[in-house]
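pipeline/complex-builder :: batch 7 item 3
reading input block
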Amino acid sequence: MKLYTAKSDTVTAKRIVADDMILTKDMPTAAGSKMLDGYMSLLEAEAVTRLTAAGYGICGKADVGEFAIDLVGETSYYGAPTKDGKLTNASVEIVKSSEAMAAIGLDVNGSIRRAAAQGGLVSVKPTYGTVSRYGTIPVACSGETVCVTAKNTDDCREVLDVIVGHDDKDGTSLSETECAKLKKAMPAKSIKKVAMISEMCENVDAETKAKIDAVRAKLAAKGIEVTVVSEPMLSSARVAWNILMSAELCNNVSRYDGVKYGYRTENYTCIDDLYTNTRTEAFGELLKTVILYGSDALSTDNYMKVYDKGLRVRRLICECFAKLFGQYDAVLLPACSKAAYTEDMVAADKYIAFSENVFTAPASITGLPTVTAGGVQLIGPAFSENALFEAAKLYE
Amino acid sequence: MRYETVIGLEVHVELATQSKIFCACHAKYGAGPNEHVCPACCGMPGMLPVTNKRVVDFGMKAGMMLNCTINRTTTFDKKSYYYPDLPCAYQTTQWFAPVAVNGLVEIETSKGKKNVRIKQIHMEEDAGKLVHDISENTSCVDFNRTSVPLIEIVSQPDLSSAEEVEAYLERLKSLLRYAKVAECAMEHGTMRCDVNLSVRPEGSDKLGVRTEMKNMNSIDAIKRAISYEVARHIDAIENGTEVLVQETRRWDDLKGKSYAMRNKETAGDYRYFPDPNVMPVVIDDAWYDSIKASLPEFPEVKRARYIETLGLSEYDATQLTKSIAVCECFEDAYAVCGNAKDAANWLLSEVMSVLGTKKMTPDSLNINGKSLGELIKLVAEGKVSRANGKKILTAMFDDTDLNPAEYAKANDLVVSNDTGLMEKVAKEVLAGEEKAVADFKAGKEKALAAILGKCMKQLKGNCNPQVLREFLISEIGKM
Ligand SMILES: [Zn+2]
């Protein structure tokens, strides 16, 4: 586990840790990859700029799994972060130790939500387009979002309030009026009815099941009706997201070719060798698998059969949520199937992150806001962050 | 057997916007290496593309000039391939919903008029440039050109000769320059062309094997390449000299030959997919109408107006309307001097001759048309001689702010009303030209011209030649 603490002693303002998908000018950003080891960016993330301007201080960078597509950070070039024999996550550890009041990071494949759920923290993945992605390492741009993780909903809301807003530098950024709907000063429509997705809550371990039950009980105690609903369609989000994410990743990481910056092999005599050997030597195994999978999904032969299907399923998932939100105010799901992951689990199933993301893919693929607290995810309609926070306050 | 040639063109044209397609960098040609770059256009992670609306304006305008249907929702896609001049290893282009489709361009050749169908026009970003240093055994990349906006104009295979290809390219250039969306100068690389060519027996409705020649950058080279390829294809068909395969070929203009490119350079799957960072561009009625309203008068309409309303000859109208730069200069000059024939005459003789000596093309004409009008007026009113008018015109090419009347005054180029000076000079010259005077008296008209020239030279041209001539004849009569 690597943590850049170069600035931690000098930052006296409210301290925020940024995960290593967030570009900073005065600290390297490696995205957990040998490819970008020591990479110093010429630009910093819009979220960092906004936090600094508001008097917060970035006290350090927290390591991530290579390009943030794994479970919780175990594929980092700098080694898997572990604690008491279990896998953990650098940002979570830093927030739990009070080194920083909150962490900001890029949620690509759910690792931030899984880590927060297992670490007992609160995390918000805001509505897609409300926090600028300018200055984040691009992986799966159609769904990835800058998230905030903290010890409680209040800290989470405070930091989210600072980084939300329109940004001309991000073509997918929503208007200021739309972004303003997330501000904590905006009145929230309180959540009265919650749909709990039965398929998602079944195949989880006992400890996770207990967390779900506890949340359910606390909501019910406050008069919020929790209904168990079967919605098998939501489980299809996983395969579709794996296709879209892999395709976009394959394309986005193609810029790391050893020509301009980052790692370059010493073993080449022509440009083709330079490309091949640089990427062979600097990318990890999981990333290589995803590159191949994504490349295949986009090939002329497979585009209609695979990638286009992924886009169609994305639309179906959006429709599925729209239908649910016609009857319920929010949807409750676990964030992961296990209370904790171990290195053995990953050794036994190299692609575990692409099955465990069955819980996180529905919100990733739709861009819907999600508050993870009490070990579960609460997903609401676009711009419903305030309502989600209010509900999560009951069980955080 | 007789054969016919079937040609389709893919023409890349750099759009003349101030900035690049997805970042604020300058898009102008001609800066030092990597002077016009930023983290976005050199592929640094974290930068996001922000679509330059002017590029869409220009793309729509180009589509309208070529009689295309504009796609009201147009989207951008990523095209992946590895090459060091492509910093992200993908190019943002339009694959699924290009800005304009189904156009029509009329061309005219010695065989008459013909319509060429346009399949589509799509917008995309250009790649950088590699500079190879053989002595150092290294290659350098210049990213100035990366993300400079391009349109690619794809024609249907409706062309059948080098002459038609030339007429088509000239026509595209003229239309796009009229709309002020592009420079279209092959010599600057702002217009490049891929030629798709096949040969088939005359009258056959089945297409022959097609070969593609990429990145052609001069009309003469294109003509030579077409005639070479046609001969190669026919030779292969008739004599079996080789088996034709569908392939991409490189034209070597120095050697006058085309070569098959290595498979590695051309093979590959571009893995197109919609760019999630570039939102679909929705063209509403207001936007569409504003672009439609900004279209220029088409060349034919202008030509007809010059003939019918301004009374110019067909020849003059045709010559003027070949270039929008010439038209604009003409119209400004006419607005000031009020005489269309005079203005056309100046443009087509004097201005063209200065362009010729300066080795400039009519498209690069940059003199101030209003000043030219002032100059024409000065000459017409006899205030400046035609010969001195040409001197002032030449000076106007170097200084676009030049005021002809002030310049004439400052440089002693104004026709003098001082007849005393003229008479004094004429008498002195005549005194030294006994032989010429005798010759003139003996009936040699030409002798007078020599005397007149000498006087004019001493008077620096600032004299009414008719008045001088009459004075000389009367003086000789007295001798
Ligand atoms: Zn730039």
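note: The first strand of chain B starts at residue 3 and ends at 14.
queue -> next item
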